Amino acid sequence: MINTMECAVDAQSLISISLRKIHNSRTQRGGIKLHKNLLVSYVLRNARQVYMNEKYAEIYRMQQYEEVMTVCNEIQELNPLDLVEDCEEQTGDCCGSANESASLCGALLPVSHQAPAVQHLQPSSACSVPLALQSEEVCKAPEPSFYRSCCAEAYPVSNCDFSPVNNMHCNKTTVLDLDTHVVTTVENGYLHQDCCASLQQCCQGAQSPAKKRKLDFGYYVSEIEEVPDFTPCKRAKFEDSSYASTEPLDTSNISNLISIFGSGFTGLVSRQADLEQALNGQFCSKQALASLGAWTRAIVAF
Amino acid sequence: MMAGVGGGNDFQWCFSQVKGAIDEDVAEADIISTVEFNYSGELLATGDKGGRVVIFQREQESKNRQVSRGEYNVYSTFQSHEPEFDYLKSLEIEEKINKIRWLPQQNAAHFLLSANDKTIKLWKISERDKRAEGYNLKDEDGRLRDPFRITTLRVPVLMPMDLMVEASPRRIFANAHTYHINSISVNSDYETYLSADDLRINLWHLEITDRSFNIVDIKPANMEELTEVITAAECHPHQCNVFVYSSSKGTIRLCDMRAAALCDRHSKFFEEPEDPSSRSFFSEIISSISDVKFSHSGRYMMTRDYLSVKVWDLNMENRPVETYQVHEYLRSKLCSLYENDCIFDKFECCWNGSDSAIMTGSYNNFFRMFDRNTRRDITLEASRENSKPRAMLKPRKVCTGGKRKKDEISVDSLDFNKKILHTAWHPKENVIAVAATNNLYIFQDKMN
């Protein structure tokens, strides 16, 4: 396990910093440094791994909280007065983490911890379950084996049963071979290892036909001025619009790193939540995780 | 009592010289990017980011001054590489000199190889101290004489002139590397040399420029599967069929060119298992090897990663025989060093002539020496403040925590812009050259 306590920088900041480095490497003299960018991609992968572990832990906690509240509700129907205290206790455990994030997608944001404010005795509002989790398609508590596998492995195996789809091509990567000067578009078949969820859905708003780009300096189609800052504070402006409409270049390949992150890391996730109302929290994070896998590889693929 | 480093004797390092501008404002082109003594130690070459090569020559030892050895003075300066533009790939090629390697001297002239990211050049440095005078067809100032006015014939005579050192490119080895060249190494047969970039190693003959043999190719068929790159390569000092190359994953492969034409399959594989308890976001970065050097004996090799130097016995592949921590106090600062890009700095390392000591650089213009026999180590600083002639260098110490003692410097006070990446040790004597940004410091052992 990666020791995350070594510094105050969290995984998300590292991801942001790393992407900025990759972006800056485009404009450095002497061309893109393969060695340095490979090392940066390793940091990205490690940060992603930690991030995924934290998220799955969060999901698991939310699931437990959900179950507790369900039990609370059922018991309260029998005796509302007796069980408020129990619910409050549980709330203290669960709502703390639930209130931390208005939605699971928002949980991706480094929001300060909010103390649970349980004013009412109505469990449905006192413990404000994220909207996403109230969907009927709430995933059952993940089996411990899945949880472990997701935490332990960089690329969770496709043994989870959330979606039967296993060989979706979510992203295509455009690779320029420096030796032969051939631009090829590689169907990324690795994604099904990363994303257990339906990749078709996750790519719905984000897919654009893969086209061969003309040889251009660097491998990222987006112009520098079109790439917004990677800092989280800028994500807000992308939350409302769909991914496709914010894509400045409709000819951009989806696996284009800068075009993906041009929408902002969390903005991408929240948009997907908007698109898919039935999505549960796991789906949301899975889509982000799936994309991360493609991003990591696309970085490496020069 | 100053504890020095040496093979059994205590050395006392003293300041000898410093070359370069004193200005605080450092021009990027003046930043030294490589330092190398020649085989005899008489010449010291530096390359910089501006593509220039400066060669210093040691003056003959004067009988009057027995205590101090000869000083190094500028011998030749020339522009080795110019910035280029690859129009096909729309890439600018930096003129920065990545490596200089001397050839052994075989006649009066000196030869060296200098490499930037894409091209290697063989330079001949020769002296001219005579000039022919008394030409028939031209005047002394070079103007052509009117042939009809020549009535007598004379034989030109060689007259002494002020010493002039000329550098001329004799060979240009180009168009063989798609990726950035990180190493060149002259083979012990003195006929061939290898050049390595991120993914490939080529073998050249010094006389042939239009052809090279690719001997290592780690480029995957699908670049998405790329997991490591070549970071350094070197020929064995005695066995002309053996070379090693290090990788960004912290491994070293030894290859035998007799085994196959393409040496993708190694003969030996050196790797130390990673300590799982020290795993961090940056484990891959700090394990990447930045330099590999054979010992003069050929029995050992040394590797430098971000925090340590390791000595390997060629006969033992599963772990190094010695590990020296260069600046372990930086392990808790890796996040900051990643943000400011210092974690990508590529430090080099070098052996002394007898292989009893090793040296490598650090930050704050510190450099470190380790005595392999006594296991003592010392930290010294290259600074203008200690630049009085023959002034003894005081050992420095970094305070890692708790109360800072006098003369200690705390980790947070270190200047990470002052980094010593390139050092060189005279092949026979205790004279060292240390490159500190745009300055070259030369230190000598007092006992010399």
UniProtKB/TrEMBL annotation, chain A:
Name of one Pfam family that matches: IER
| InterPro entries assigned to the protein according to its UniProt record, in alphabetical order | IER
Q: Which family does it belong to?
A: Belongs to the IER family.
Q: What is this protein called?
A: Immediate early response gene 5-like protein
Automatic annotation (TrEMBL), chain B:
SMART domains, per this entry?
Answer: WD40
GO CC aspect terms: protein phosphatase type 2A complex
User: What's an example of a GO molecular-function annotation for this chain?
Assistant: protein phosphatase regulator activity
Keyword Transcription among UniProt keywords: no
Record flagged with keyword Heme? no
Q: What are the UniProt keywords, alphabetically?
A: Repeat, WD repeat
State how it assembles: PP2A consists of a common heterodimeric core enzyme, composed of a 36 kDa catalytic subunit (subunit C) and a 65 kDa constant regulatory subunit (PR65 or subunit A), that associates with a variety of regulatory subunits.
Q: Which family does it belong to?
A: Belongs to the phosphatase 2A regulatory subunit B family.
User: What is this protein called in UniProt?
Assistant: Serine/threonine-protein phosphatase 2A 55 kDa regulatory subunit B
Q: From which organism does this entry originate?
A: Cirrhinus molitorella
Top-level taxonomy? Eukaryota, Metazoa, Chordata, Craniata, Vertebrata
